[in-house]
Amino acid sequence: MVQIRKAEVEQAIVCAARELFMQHGYAGTRVPQVARAAGVSPANIYVYFSSKLELLARVYEQWFAERLDELRAALAHCATPDDKLRKIVMAVWRDLPAADNGFCNSLIEALSAPGSKEKYSSSLRVVVERGLADMLAECLPALAREQHRALARFLLMAFDGYALNYHLNDGETASEEDVAFLCAMMRGYAP
Q1: At what angle do helices 123-139 and 52-75 cross, to 10 degrees?
Q2: Segment 2-48, tens digit of pLDDT
Q3: CA of 89: how far to CAs of 15, 36, 128, 152, in Å?
Q4: Domain spanning 1-49: which superfamily?
Q5: Cβ neighbours of 176 (radius 10 Å)
């Protein structure tokens, strides 16, 4: 018999998983814990998600979208393109790696887990990269669209490193000097 998926059940699973992943990380969270917290059976989790990684990806995508919405809102209050550029770099290299006790490291943890053979879709990276490229276009309008995308890709690749560094080095994030240096490089790169 085919089970009928219900939006409320799926949302309960996602909410429970979010709390548990934030508290215990990827490795420390088990599907039965998520099921218990969501009020469903462990088997029911797999009606909605093919794996724990897919569940984490959903949680992570929602979490990251919320952080980007907050960044967009904050950019609206910046007075100059330089202020916006600094805010973007600070968000990606400092604020996001530290947000919710380093939650973003959960995805790195999941993808690097021993024996993990699951595929991860790069769709989130592509969406985030486009969003960052659009934000960078506001700060550096003289650059071509492909240059905004290249800078966004660079910020995201370094973001992974800062997220891991936050986890490994007691909450260490990018320094003011790192941020100022990159902003100066990007402004100097623009014609």
Answers
A1: 10
A2: 455 688 899 999 999 999 999 998 989 999 999 999 999 999 999 99
A3: 29, 39, 14, 10
A4: Homeodomain-like (1.10.10.60)
A5: 10
